[in-house]
């Protein structure tokens, strides 16, 4: 028998299905190799989130082996999948959910081009209108931090809190993205790699034309607000 | 009951099917990520065109959720799919159909290499015979223009009207292509990214050998005319 | 009723099936976009070869729409598929079959990296053991020649006749490869793009270590001869 | 009737299935073209290993056409598949199994970016945390050695014995990786190409930020040891 009310259980089941399925976007867009990336989603209204199990191949993911965690990053005992360990990045996801109340989804990848910028510790400048839409300016670099305590989570929050960007390049490491839900965070991860790649390749050929700040602002405002009135930016298609 | 004669309705249904299906070429050739690109097709003989709905994943496209629009870019009330918004790029497509009578299809993408040239505001020079066949010379750059009025549409028309090229690189933005029908415009989008990529990579390794103008002219004329006598360049295979 | 003896007809049917199926290797390895590449195969013992029809999508290829041609590049009247035009590159394939008796297969692509070397008119130097195995040295550049007469065919033959390489980079154009049969020529096209890409990327990072000529010779001899004793190089796996 | 006890036969059958199936990871991650790469796995407790047959397409691999070999690299007479030749790289695999008792799997590829570093004879420096996890530092370069005697095997062992890295770049040739079993070696091959590509691309854009040695050590120790206590690094997900 579930330890949750049937309404909460239904929500948990939906988030399990979403989080499981959304990993296929990471493989579709080649943002990950082997088991090196993960998606999580907050259970709305609860102090809970759902995340990928550690070391399980993307082919084997299913709603029932996703892991339900409390905001300290521990699996809820007795819940499906809780016999396995959650992703080794769970502590970072948990820290974000605990400290950024508006965040409903977190994604971590080592996608190639974004990680290349991260290895140089260089933010991705905003030269493309689609990047202005989605990120509202440059994608910033977060601190160097290694796994084992809450330093990765703290670095993500310190960099993204109050920033327009939904993506942060963790120095020498990879990318974390946030969103209003798991799908929105996955979209940010997909777009982050796309703009990292396009901007890298553009720059190989010479100097880029600057996008004026007022145009960046106009694009970002329209995408977040005008679109927002019709159901939210995540459903829009302004790029 | 349809508001159109059965002959017109049949044509509309065919264009809906074509436009829906042709989006799979954008994903097959990796010209788009997430929902960031769109195809439209004019309904021959009518002041109508069919376009992708906004924010719908490529996996979910079907003839019935394509949106039938009038040349002012508005969905035809009561037609299938008209409960959703058409692509946010609809105004640009509509402007092209209204001002370029020979255009039967329009495609918009942010394909990586083409957008990289666009971010530098640099036209793609013509060094490859297949590019001479399809584009008849360089692929030009259009003005910087942002979404919200008809400035993107005007920029496309001002650049392509009277130009050999079926593709324009909109500065800091992405690519628009035109064609005699939707399939022809999709082919131009596929070829545009292909020549953008090949020319970029070629130039990384050193100087390119110029293609003499008379050879470019001969290739373009043959592809457009000789082939045209046997059913049109879009059916040819001269590259 | 077939115009050929049943034994010849059986051979023709086998070559039709091979040539049709082998196009899927061009798409699998992303050597082609749209309809821009083609495979042909000689009918052993006959003055005939089988080639892709012009302008037909790779999804629609089937043994019965391949086109049987005589060595002047014309479809055999009344044979299946002869109501369509053969590939616009048929004249070049035909010229090769007519002038190189040992060639049983020809492939043409505009694969990205190989075409990039061709746009610079630069041969691909031999720095990788797998390239020494397959090509026995550099991949040479053929002359600039445009479609419309036999100049492409002559350029291929003039460059490859007596050369170790099965691939030629036609200047500003693309690649032609030859082989003992269609599969062998497809393998050469796949390997040509692979070594074009690897050598390009290697050189971006600095100077390459030369492969001594005697090592290249030893690798090529072993692959062609030692392997040949067990059924031919095309079946080997020395790379 | 099998020449092995039923327990050994069962183990051999399992390794045949694993080795056959794991080749699909080489194609999934585009580490190989045509037939140019191979996986082998030791039969635990026996002086035997299982390897890909020579020149067989990845589409046709099946447990029963994998080849069971003794540690001198010869097929076991009468075993399934022994009518075909084992991979032409079998001697190198055999040498590794004979001289590195802890190795349970070997993989060979010519994956693009890793081979590019190999063509320059340049080790891949360690600037990414995921590389520190998996390889514990740079990926070293082994000697130039050509097929035909045991010089490739000796070069692999001389380079990797006592080294943290599970991957070696054989100069002007390609990559060999080792692991506790075939899956672990495949993971190393996938990760090697991933870090080769990311580091190459990162360096194209400017200088990389060094990873301090003590951080590399901490990451490697944690991944190998902390994870090891819960079932081994190969099951972990620390990147």
From TrEMBL, chains A, B, C, D:
<dbReference type="InterPro" id="IPR050197">
    <property type="entry name" value="Aldolase_class_II_sugar_metab"/>
</dbReference>
<dbReference type="InterPro" id="IPR001303">
    <property type="entry name" value="Aldolase_II/adducin_N"/>
</dbReference>
<protein>
    <recommendedName>
        <fullName>L-ribulose-5-phosphate 4-epimerase</fullName>
        <ecNumber>5.1.3.4</ecNumber>
    </recommendedName>
</protein>
<dbReference type="Pfam" id="PF00596">
    <property type="entry name" value="Aldolase_II"/>
</dbReference>
<comment type="similarity">
    <text>Belongs to the aldolase class II family. AraD/FucA subfamily.</text>
</comment>
<keyword id="KW-0862">Zinc</keyword>
<feature type="domain" description="Class II aldolase/adducin N-terminal">
    <location>
        <begin position="17"/>
        <end position="200"/>
    </location>
</feature>
<keyword id="KW-0479">Metal-binding</keyword>
<dbReference type="InterPro" id="IPR036409">
    <property type="entry name" value="Aldolase_II/adducin_N_sf"/>
</dbReference>
